[in-house]
Amino acid sequence: MNTTLNQIRDESPCADGWKKLLAHLGKTKADDEAISILTILDSNGLDDALWCLRAVTGHDREIRLYAVWCARQVQHLMTDKRSLDALDVSERFANGLATDEELTAARAAAWAAEDAEDAEDAADAAWSAEDAAEDAARAAARAAWAASAASLAASAASAASDASDASAAASAASDAARAASDAVSDAVSDAAWAAAFDASDAAQEKRLREACAEIDAAIAQRKETIIARAK
Question: Which end of the chain is less packed: N or C, by CB atoms within 10 Å?
């Protein structure tokens, strides 16, 4: 998946991340040269790479499916059927099997589920972390994901509506765990949170690299087919 500095600039990136990327590329201003999302990942890290997905064109389906994949990693913590339905509709929409109307309805339902579950999930997460003090890292991971599960589902549903929302959902999957820290910060140690974040980031980065590799392979295959037909 590629983008350009001009496309990224049009999305109003943060100043620090923008300067860091320019320095990595050895440039001082934006241009239209293609930049791989993996280059941004290597330069700026996962959060910035996911944010820059909103500046990618031509790969809406892949970005949406990646967002859904991120949300499905905490599917077992989602207790509201509306959240689960949102994932299913998002995935079907990305594959051309759901209508715009179905998507809109699922997205609205998912956000309603988030509003209903946020407080309960945060409380449950705090208790889980406290009770599992002997395994703080695992508790932290569960607590963080539990508090953000409905939000991830809603973001994934929104992701299937357009590319910018898709990248936002992917970004939400990366930083949703951090949003839960206010609810459970007293129950787990800094080391446990760091371990939980590192594990979730590693999984998302691995899948992002795989998705990019799959796209590159598909493009190469299409080129080979075109060349073979032209002979």
Answer: C
Residues 92 and 150 in one domain: yes
Q: Tell me the backbone φ, ψ of residue 34, rounded to 5 degrees.
A: -65, 135
* Strand extents, DSSP E, 112-183: none
88 in the same domain as 199: yes
User: Beta-carbon neighbour count of residue 160 at 10 Å?
Assistant: 31
Take residue 222 and report the two structure tokens written for it: 């299409």
Residue 136 is encoded by which pair of tokens? 């703080």
Per-residue pLDDT of 15-45, as tens digits, reads 999 999 999 999 999 999 999 999 999 999 9
Average pLDDT, whole number, for the chain? Answer: 78
Question: How many domains does the chain contain in total?
Answer: 2
Residues 48-71 have pLDDT tens digits of 999 999 999 999 999 999 999 998
Domain boundary among 57, 84, 103: 57
- pTM for the predicted model, two decimal places: 0.70
| Number of neighbours of residue 131 by Cβ within 10 angstroms | 11
Closest of 183, 158, 178, 181 to residue 168, by C-alpha: 158
- Name the 3-class secondary structure at 98: coil
231, part of any domain: no
Distance CA 147, CA 181 (A): 9
Domain membership of residue 162 (yes or no) is yes
Question: 3: which strand partners?
Answer: 35
